[in-house]
TrEMBL record:
GO terms for cellular component: cytoplasm. This is Fe2OG dioxygenase domain-containing protein. Belongs to the alkB family. It comes from the Eukaryota. Binds 1 Fe(2+) ion per subunit. One of its GO terms (biological process) is oxidative RNA demethylation. The lineage of its organism: Eukaryota, Viridiplantae, Streptophyta, Embryophyta, Tracheophyta. Pfam families: 2OG-FeII_Oxy_2. PANTHER family: ALKYLATED DNA REPAIR PROTEIN ALKB-RELATED, NUCLEIC ACID DIOXYGENASE ALKBH1. It comes from Paspalum notatum var. saurae. PROSITE patterns: FE2OG_OXY. Its cofactor is Fe(2+). Fe cation binds at H113, D115, H173. InterPro entries: Alkb, AlkB-like, AlkB-like_sf, Oxoglu/Fe-dep_dioxygenase_dom.
Amino acid sequence: MVLLKGFVKPEDQIGMVRMCRQLGKGPGGFYRPSFKNGAKLNLWTMSLGKNWDPTLRSYGPTRPFDGAQAPTIPDAFKMIAQTANSTASEFPQINPDICIVNYYTNSGKLGLHQDKDESESSLTKGLPFISISIGDTAEFLFGDTRDQDQATKINLESGDVLILGGESRLLFHGVSHVKTNTAPNVYYAPKLGVKARK
Ligand SMILES: O=C(O)CCC(=O)C(=O)O
Ligand SMILES: [Fe+2]
């Protein structure tokens, strides 16, 4: 696991927020997904490149509930993710074809989970996912099990990039809470997590 503090320049953070707002309002934009039992997750999400269905736990070109096609991943997002990826030279380099954008309001959170719905070959090669945080600081948990009490806590601040690859690719991770009004600029949204992967 590699954490690049303050990796994304302030002007690029603002550009990403603008782009997410614009894409989020269009077809395939932000929605609040549900668990299998019908309860809603505490975040808004959209998938770029390919749609990730949190209920089916699989990828496809369109999303089942409204038929919307996943918008294309903006080049600027790919560029930032790939530059961060090459900085963490211990991990293989990817050309991301999936980007999931999570938008957390003040009460937003995400339980401990593994990201393991990517292709078999992506997982066995330990291809990294690259997670860019923008906006309010999030308390991020990670560990070897789903046990929240044993997890390590770190703050993900605006502009931080976290890369999980190789041995750390299947770590359990989640967002315990968002620290309201900690973003460096009022223009920024509450926390946005932009995750690029293959
Ligand atoms: O938003 C984040 O920083 C993490 C999100 C996450 O783990 C996921 O979407 O699988
Ligand atoms: Fe995840």
